[in-house]
TrEMBL record:
Residues that span the membrane, as ranges: 12-32
Keyword Chloroplast found: no
UniProt name for this protein: Class E sortase
Stored SUPFAM superfamilies: Sortase
Pfam family, one: Sortase
Keyword set includes Flavoprotein: no
Source organism (scientific name): candidate division WWE3 bacterium
Keywords: Hydrolase, Membrane, Transmembrane, Transmembrane helix
Listed GO MF terms: hydrolase activity
InterPro entries documented for this protein: Sortase, Sortase_dom-sf, Sortase_E
Length: 225
């Protein structure tokens, strides 16, 4: 009986520790997976290329064993975002309110949100403002909860592609910054050229700060139609 009394607290504590570890793995799993994938990709100098000729179809085999580029086919040439360096290939939901939490939370379950107060891709001066999750809470926020988890990995000069109405708008990263969660300057700032702004949470899963990437239009590649 004495042995049983002493072992019960130990067993309970072990269960709590195991549950805690499982919770951490469950919560941080998507972020950890993305970080490991990016580390291996960079270590192997593996490239992701839009419609790469002779490229491999994305798979576990291709990521780990193939030395060929991995081909990325835009999910929607009408409106989507492709960032080859970090493997982003996601639809863009147009005209999403940045002040209606219910509306933008619903939109972010289906892709990357385009702020309704911003412009559409064009050669004319304007700010195309896109925002998406960098989150741990994928089980509540949907399949695109971690789409911008690796946004901070972008470097100056990296290309970002916005497909709009069949055309490929190619932007080049020119700035990265962290701003407070309430700071609307990246959305409302005046611009004198065609600019793309990408925004996500910093740190992931919080609303404390916003991580913002700015890119400038470099080229427009006409579509087939």
């Amino acid at each position: 009986m004495l042995n049983n009394k002493h072992t019960r607290p130990i067993k309970l504590s072990n269960v709590l520790i195991i549950l805690g570890i499982l919770f951490l793995l469950f919560s941080f799993g998507p972020l950890l997976k993305d970080e490991i994938w990016f580390y291996i990709k960079e270590l192997r100098n593996q490239e992701y290329k839009i419609n790469a000729e002779g490229g491999e179809k994305d798979s576990v085999f291709a990521r780990l064993l193939s030395s060929n580029p991995i081909a990325m086919t835009p999910v929607d040439t009408e409106f989507s975002l492709v960032i080859e360096r970090i493997g982003v290939n996601a639809p863009i939901i147009a005209d999403v309110s940045v002040t209606d939490e219910k509306a933008y939370r619903e939109a972010l379950k289906h892709g990357i949100a385009h702020a309704s107060t911003s412009q559409y891709p064009s050669r004319e001066p304007g700010n195309v403002y896109l925002f998406a999750h960098a989150s741990l809470n994928f089980f509540d926020l949907g399949g695109y909860a971690s789409v911008f988890n690796l946004l901070r990995k972008l470097n100056y000069g990296d290309e970002v592609h916005v497909f709009y109405k069949g055309d490929d708008y190619v932007y080049e990263v020119t700035n990265k910054e962290v701003v407070k969660g309430w700071n609307t300057q990246p959305l409302l700032r005046p611009v004198i050229e065609s600019v793309l702004t990408l925004q996500t949470c910093d740190p992931p899963g919080t609303t404390i700060n916003r991580f913002v990437v700015t890119a400038v239009l470099k080229d427009v590649i006409p579509g087939s139609r």
